[in-house]
Structure prediction request, 145 residues.
Amino acid sequence: MTSLEESSSDKGQRTQSARWLSQSKHDLRAARINSDSGLYAWACFMSHQAAEKAVSAYLYARGAELIWGHGIADLCEDAMAFEPSFDLVKSSAIQLDKYFFGSRYPTTIPSGTPFESYELEDALRAMAIAEETISFVDRQIELLE
Prediction:
């Protein structure tokens, strides 16, 4: 592989990373809109999506070509191979993993439905964790540039 090809590949990874981070921020905005509308379960799910995409953006920035899975804890483990401080992100963002299924499927709730089970406090906490995750990833990606 020539230097030009490596440079092109690096640029492609940066572009891919930027796309994922941009979508992450959009998902966080969607979480806020849902929360403001009283759709707390959906706000929790979108917060999970925002954080998941942010960590994925970091992995793309580090050269990953394919990223599998939706568990933020697992994605943070992968990121820790490059940056050990992702352990700090993992410790809080892991809380969002329970929203991946729990906020959407009635079978995950013993009785009732997710939309009846989540409250404003759940949405606010989920959005705060997602925002912290995105900010952390933003800083880490800036350090790579």
In short: Residues 3-144 form a domain with the Four Helix Bundle (Hemerythrin (Met), subunit A) fold (CATH 1.20.120.330). DSSP finds seven helices and no strands in the chain. Confidence is low (pLDDT under 50) at residues 1-6.
